[in-house]
Amino acid sequence: MPTPPSLEPADPLPTTPEATPFTIPDPQPQITVNLAALNGFVMLIALGLMVIGWVIDFAPLLFCGALVALLVALRITVPALSRWFVRFLTPDERQILLGVLGSLGAIAGFGQILGVYQRINQWLIKAKWDEFGSWAEWFGAVGQIMIAVIAVYVAWQQYVISKDLTIRQNTITQQQTIDAYFQGISDLALSDEGLLEDWPQERAFAEGRTAAILSSVDAFGKAKILRFLSQSRLVTPLKRDGLLGRAILDGEGGYAEDRVQGLRVIDLGVMLARADMSETDLRWTDLSDAYMIGADLSHCDLVRANLARAVLFEANLREADIKGVRFFYGPVETATPRSLTAPPDYETGAHTGAVIEKADFTRVQRMSEEQRYYCCAWGGEKTRGTIPGGCAGIPNQLGR
User: Fold this and answer.
1) What's the rounded Cα separation, in Å, for the pair 38 and 76?
2) How far apart are CA 234 and CA 286, in angstroms?
3) In angstroms, rounded to a whole number, what is the distance separating the alpha carbons of residues 287 and 315?
4) C-beta of residue 280 within 8 angstroms of C-beta of residue 222
5) Distance of alpha carbon 67 from its chain centroid, rounded?
6) pTM, whole model, 2 decimals?
7) Where are the domains of the chain?
8) Closest CA to 356 of 335, 379, 374
């Protein structure tokens, strides 16, 4: 019995490139042209033709060279300008630029339609050019004046810049001086036992340094020094050992105060007389017993400052913030200003108050009723006239 023929083909068709019975020939290699080099070569030839045509005075050759150079230049610059506009100008900015160019073109077209150029041409023909000589002299004079104005302006700007630099340099120098003072006082005041012992010579040196620096710094420098001295307890009368002179601890981590017989490391005395401390921060400073005759404390922040027994005769406290300022000790009804002869009584307040005669309290901020009563009672007529809210019903204890 004959065998049936197989259903599978004898020679299957190739399905992969590897099985392809023939090879496709490689294409011919392409020639790459450097357009930049070609443009440069053509540009050089065109410029050379222009020069030859110019020299031999042959117009057609000159025209052809100029035309080719222009076309090549446009071919080089137009794509570069297009890329620049796309890179550096947003679509809105490109629209604005196009609108400006269109507006200028429209104005030029309307000028031609309305005959503006013809009128200008007629005016130029009829103009008397000999008169322009005097006009030129006027314009020259105006130009000289403008140059002088510009020179004055430049000189003024140089002065302003120089002044600013000088102020900054002075500020830096002053801060360095204050830092050196802080370090010197700290080294002088501190010893192995603690706060400065009761050696008069050392206290005299400390007071001398303080008096010298307070007279050589501005208002803000004075405020920094006073805050340092107050927070360091160097201007507060401290209770001291009668034999050793050492400051006595109060049992709460600090030094005990003694307003009656205590000694200050630095006694401000008259260092602040007539001093300008306006618009500074003097919060929580101890200025008690200081002679601040005629001092300028206007616009100061004096919150919680101690001004008891301070001499504020003719002082200026205009628009200062005096919330919580201590002007006296004890009840306000029995408190009186300091006296040169009578000792202070810190229980009744007698002779513990500040001397505020002829002081200016105009528009002071956050004055309490006790402060107002004391200032009205012991300020005199001139001071009473500056107290916010008036002094109605409060007697004038000074009588003048």
Assistant:
1) 11
2) 10
3) 14
4) yes
5) 60
6) 0.61
7) 35-85, 165-267, 268-400
8) 379
